[in-house]
Amino acid sequence: MVAAEALDRTVVTVAARSLRARLPELTDHLVGEFAVREELVLADEVRTSLAQLCAEGLRAAITTLEQPDGDRADLRLAAETGTLWATRGLPLDSLLRLYRLAGRLLWENLLQAAGPAGASTLAYQAGAVLRGIDQESTAAAAAYRQAERRLLPRGLLRVAAAIDALLSGRPPDATELESAADLLELPLTGPYVVAVQRPGAQRSLVAAHGRTSHRGMRFCWRRGRDADRVLVLLGSAGPDDVEAVLRPLTLHHVGIGLPVAGLAEVAKSHRYAELAVRSCRADGPEIARFDRRLPQGLLLAQPELADDLVREVLGAVLVLPARYREALLDTLEAWLCCDGSAVATARALYCHRNTVLYRLRRLQELTTRSLGKPCDLVDLTLALYAFRASPTPSTARASGA
């Protein structure tokens, strides 16, 4: 019996030792599968951090397999991981799913390493292996709940409230501003910018939920039911850098406001970000920067004026049957995007150049405005922007509803 147990342990030890040599490969596999299962889009620095965490966890688990009677460093690391997960505001169920994936990955690769000859022997150790994984996930969950009880009343909820107060339309007083700056560990002076994603996406823009740093910028993420928001301390970076960081995280429309000088003005950047994201078309995802959507933002901020502009400029077009109306408006939109080139417009719309020219002439006749006159072109462009951005269905608008 003793000899059999020794043989069982030898098989496990040898198999575990082979897994240690493949630790980078196993880590990449675990991180990739976790991201897919959780529908996460991970920024580079978040993936690197998660990979480091997974590598340390797998290494500790393999050490325990090799030396089951030794120091249980894997349990200490699991507790540290649970605490870290809670402080970052990540859900406990995702952590437990990570441990289940890691346990399955370890067991499947242990069987593969043992080979056909050792698989039957290794099966006798299945209970011990699974108990070890269960103990790790239990330790992580216990530490998570302890940290959550400590943090939620005074930490995460206060951070969320501080961000909400800064982004609200009501200007914060000096005391509120200083309190928010201390809590978020941010300076009163900027520059700052705000980005908004609609609709709120549980696992996209806020994949790095919490407070993170990247490329010299500092991000304060805020998940909401209606939208996800992020307050960014730019440092020496600019909107181009913010867009570069957010683009791989974007699964829905995102609006980026204008940079502002300090925390006291971030509500203005938030308002502009909201207008920018409203300018996005339905076929997303799309990142809209307010500095590149100023005409649309102006119209969205003045909805009554925008409606009047649409009726005045496009009224005769909107009463046409839907098929003809959309053909004219789509042609105008494509022509504007193609910098006034009829050839490029025809290529974009998959039609003949003469068709483009005919539709543009017809549009000018109906609106009594010439695309060759700068003032008329401004009218047509703004009216088109207002029509596309309005939440009112085109059929209702066309019928005068």
TrEMBL record:
Residues 169-278 form the CdaR GGDEF-like domain. Residues 328-385 form the PucR C-terminal helix-turn-helix domain. Residues 24-154 form the RsbT co-antagonist protein RsbRD N-terminal domain. InterPro entries: CdaR-like_regulators, CdaR_GGDEF, PucR_C-HTH_dom, PucR_C-HTH_sf, RsbRD_N_dom. Belongs to the CdaR family. This is Helix-turn-helix domain-containing protein.
